[in-house]
Specification:
Length: 517
C-alpha cells in the first residue's frame, strides 16, 4: 500500500513535523510504502502563506475568503491534481487551527478529481470528536488522539478490505456511533525518529531548526479553556530525548524546539537537566533550545541558571491573566504572585523568559483586564519578550465550551468570525468581539512601548488580533498614544505601588477608548 502524509501550510514553525517522523518510522517498519509531503517547506507556497500577516487570517472564514483564497486557489488545484494522479491508497493530513481551511480546499479538490480517494485526518485539532466533526466531510476518517497504534491497524483493515470503524481512536464521520476512544500509546517506547522521509533542504539553511517531542499531554491538564484535559500526560523516556538531541546536533541543527508542555515538571526532570548540560559541553555553544514550562516553584534561580547553562536560550510560559479571580475560574492552578515570583527567579538565573496572555475571557470584567495590564507592566523588567497576546475563543470540546452551550448569557447563535474548531464570534451582555479586540490591542501597544515584542512580530504589530483587526501597521494615533503611555510607565516603574499602577492604567485605557476605539 502507498501512504502519503501531508502537512498542509501553514505550520507554526518552518520545521519538519516530528509527529510525521514518528509515524513514518512506524509504518515503514510494518512494510508500508510511505511518503511525507511537507508543504510548510514548499517554497512556492511559503512566499505567499508564510507572511505572518496572512497566517493570522487562517482560522477565520470571512478573512480567509478575502485574503487567502485569491492567492491559494491555483496552487491548491495544481497540487490536488498531482496528489490525485499518483494513485495513493490513503492520503493523510495533520490538522491544526491555522491550516484547516487550506486542508478543506485541498481535500475538496482531490474528491472532485477522484471521488473514491480515502482521506484521513489527525493532529492537534482532532483531539475531540466535536472538533473533528466540524472540519470537513471530504475527510473520510479522523484519528482522535495519537495515531501510533491506530493508524497501522487502520491501514491493515483497508488493505484486507475490512471495516475500520471498530478500531479504537478511528472516527468515521458517517458512522459516529461506532467510535470508541483508544488507550493512549506510550511515548516512552519512541526512540530516535530517523527523519528519513523529509526533504530538509526545503527549510532554513542559515539556522537549521528541528522539534523534539519530550512528552505528550500536559502534567496539569485542568485548564478549563484548553483541550489538554483530553490528552493524557505521558513522558517520553528521557534517555531517548537526549539521544535524539545528540542525533540532531550531529546533523548540524542549530535551533531546537523542545516540545514538552512543562519541562521541568517534577523532581525527576531536574535530574535530566544534568544530561542536557553534558550535551552542551560535548557540542559547544553554537545551538539553542526553546523550552516550555508551567509557572512552578521548581524554577528557583539555581535551576534557571542550570537550564541556561544547559542550552535553554528561552523559556515560554502561559500566564493568561493577572487577575487571581480569573485564574481561579480558568482553573490555571497558579496565582499572580506565583507568576511574578517565577519570572523573577528566571531573571536571577539568567534565563530568558517569554509567554502568552489570554484576553477577553467570558467572565473577564474590566477590573480583571486592568489587573492583567498592570501585571504586564510589573513583570516587564524580567521578560526578554512577550510572545503573544491572544484573544479568547472557545475551542470545541473544552469544558468552557460545553458550559457555554448551556449558559443563556453567552450567545453563539450568530458567529461572524467562527472558525471550524475555534469560535471567535460569541458575545455576552458586557463582552463582545469588539471589546476583546480593543483590550487585546491595548495590551499589545503596552508590549510595544515596553520593548517586549518578539522579533517575528516587529513588522506585524497586530499579531493574532488581526484575525479580526484589519490594519497591518500601527497607526499614527496609536504611536502618539504609545508615547504618552511610555511616560506614565516610566513613572510607574519608579514610583508606582499596585493601586497607583491600576489607577494609571484605568486613566490610560480611558484615553485609549476615547481616542483610538
Amino acid at each position: 500500500m502507498k501512504i502519503l502524509l501531508v502537512n498542509p501550510p501553514p505550520w507554526y514553525f518552518a520545521v519538519p513535523y516530528s509527529g510525521y517522523a514518528i509515524l513514518y518510522d512506524i509504518l515503514k517498519s510494518k512494510g508500508y510504502e510511505v511518503k511525507i509531503l511537507e508543504l510548510t517547506g514548499w517554497r512556492d507556497l511559503r512566499r505567499d502563506l508564510f507572511d505572518i500577516r496572512r497566517a493570522n487570517y487562517m482560522d477565520t472564514p470571512e478573512l480567509y475568503e478575502q485574503h487567502i483564497v485569491p492567492i491559494i486557489t491555483e496552487p491548491v488545484k495544481k497540487l490536488s491534481r498531482v496528489l490525485a494522479d499518483e494513485n495513493w491508497d490513503v492520503i493523510g493530513f495533520t490538522l491544526n487551527y491555522l491550516n484547516i481551511f487550506n486542508t478543506k480546499m485541498i481535500c475538496r479538490e482531490i474528491k472532485k478529481i477522484k471521488p473514491g480517494q480515502i482521506i484521513i485526518g489527525g493532529g492537534y485539532s482532532c483531539f475531540s470528536v466535536e472538533a473533528a466533526l466540524n472540519i470537513s466531510n471530504d475527510i473520510d476518517y479522523y484519528f482522535i488522539g495519537d495515531a501510533d497504534d491506530s493508524l497501522p491497524l487502520f491501514l491493515d483493515a483497508i488493505k484486507n478490505k475490512k471495516n475500520p470503524d471498530c478500531i479504537s481512536g478511528v472516527l468515521n464521520y458517517k458512522n459516529t456511533g461506532a467510535f470508541k476512544h483508544a488507550v493512549p500509546p506510550d511515548p516512552s517506547l519512541i526512540e530516535v525518529p530517523s527523519y528519513d522521509g523529509f526533504n530538509e533542504n526545503s527549510y532554513s539553511k542559515k539556522r537549521p531548526r528541528i522539534a523534539i517531542m519530550g512528552s505528550r499531554g500536559c502534567p496539569w491538564a485542568k485548564c478549563r479553556f484548553c483541550i489538554s484535559p483530553q490528552m493524557h500526560f505521558r513522558k517520553r523516556n528521557r534517555n531517548h530525548v537526549i539521544s535524539e538531541l545528540r542525533y540532531h546536533l550531529k546533523r548540524g541543527m542549530k535551533d531546537i524546539i523542545f516540545n514538552d508542555p512543562s519541562f521541568p515538571s517534577d523532581e525527576d526532570d531536574l535530574k535530566i537537566i544534568d544530561e542536557f548540560y553534558k550535551v552542551r559541553k560535548e557540542f559547544g555553544y553554537d545551538y539553542g533550545i526553546e523550552g516550555q514550562c508551567r509557572i512552578s516553584n521548581l524554577l528557583t534561580p539555581e535551576i534557571a541558571a542550570k537550564l541556561k547553562d544547559s542550552g535553554f536560550g528561552l523559556m515560554m510560559f502561559g500566564y493568561e491573566s493577572g487577575s487571581d479571580r480569573l485564574l481561579e475560574i480558568m482553573n490555571k492552578g497558579i496565582t499572580r504572585s506565583e507568576i511574578l515570583n517565577c519570572v523573577k527567579n528566571c531573571k536571577k538565573g539568567g534565563l530568558n523568559v517569554s509567554g502568552y496572555f489570554l484576553i477577553g475571557h467570558p467572565k473577564e470584567t474590566e477590573e480583571d483586564f486592568f489587573k492583567t495590564a498592570s501585571l504586564v507592566i510589573e513583570m516587564s523588567p524580567y521578560l526578554a519578550q512577550l510572545e503573544d497576546v491572544n484573544t479568547y475563543m472557545f475551542q470545541l470540546g473544552t469544558d468552557e465550551y460545553k458550559d457555554a452551550l448551556n449558559n443563556p448569557e453567552i450567545s453563539m447563535s450568530s458567529i461572524p468570525f467562527g472558525g471550524c474548531v475555534n469560535i471567535h464570534g460569541w458575545h455576552t451582555k458586557d463582552n463582545n468581539i469588539k471589546t476583546r479586540q480593543d483590550r487585546t490591542r491595548f495590551i499589545e501597544i503596552l508590549t510595544r512601548v515596553l520593548g517586549k515584542l518578539p522579533d517575528w512580530r516587529k513588522y506585524n504589530p497586530g499579531s493574532n488580533t488581526k484575525k479580526i483587526i484589519y490594519s497591518d501597521t500601527i497607526t499614527e494615533a496609536e504611536r502618539y498614544f504609545g508615547k504618552l503611555a511610555s511616560s506614565f510607565i516610566h513613572f510607574m516603574n519608579k514610583n508606582g505601588d499596585e493601586k497607583t499602577i491600576l489607577d494609571i492604567i484605568r486613566f490610560l485605557y480611558n484615553i485609549y477608548s476615547k481616542i483610538l476605539i
